[in-house]
Write a structure and sequence with these properties.
Residues 22-136 form the Transglycosylase SLT domain. GO terms for molecular function: peptidoglycan lytic transglycosylase activity. This is Transglycosylase SLT domain-containing protein. By secondary structure, the protein is mainly alpha-helical. It has a domain at 91-136. 54% of the residues lie in helices and 0% in strands. Helix 1 runs antiparallel to helix 2. The longest helix has 14 residues, at 22-35.
Length: 136
């Protein structure tokens, strides 16, 4: 965890979309107990989270193939059905590794500065940029 939490989040319990969700509470407990996160900060952060149906639909493309007949028009997928190996293949390949390395080397000084300032490792920043932009 960063030395100083980023963002102004604080709540005694989770409210909003994920209030009372056992999986969220288990996750928060794990982060507090194993990684020393601040519980009030996590409660506040998760109180701002909203379900993004578009994201669920996109990730559902990587789910094991099953017949999709008779689904309602507003079907948005089932959480936890995706396959990490199928999803990963879209991003971890020789071309992306090469382009990521080139990006990292080209922006080394900026990445170091951002890493120090925001306490986010350069490899995480580079990975996110690669997934989100495909280096373009």
């Amino acid at each position: 965890m960063p030395k100083k939490p980023v963002g102004n989040y604080a709540a005694s319990k989770v409210s909003g979309t994920y209030a009372g969700k056992k999986s969220v509470n288990r996750f928060i407990n794990t982060m507090v107990e194993k990684h020393n996160f601040n519980r009030r900060w996590l409660n506040g952060l998760f109180s701002t989270v909203e379900r993004q149906n578009k994201s669920i639909r996109l990730l559902d493309r990587y789910a094991p193939s099953k017949k999709k007949k008779n689904r309602p028009a507003d079907y948005v997928g089932q959480p936890g059905r995706g396959s990490w190996s199928r999803y990963r293949r879209q991003f971890i390949n020789e071309k992306n590794l090469q382009r990521g390395t080139e990006f990292w080397l080209s922006h080394k000084s900026t990445l170091r500065r951002v890493e120090r300032e925001y306490q986010v490792p350069a490899h995480v920043i580079v990975g996110i940029i690669g997934v989100e932009t495909r280096w373009g």
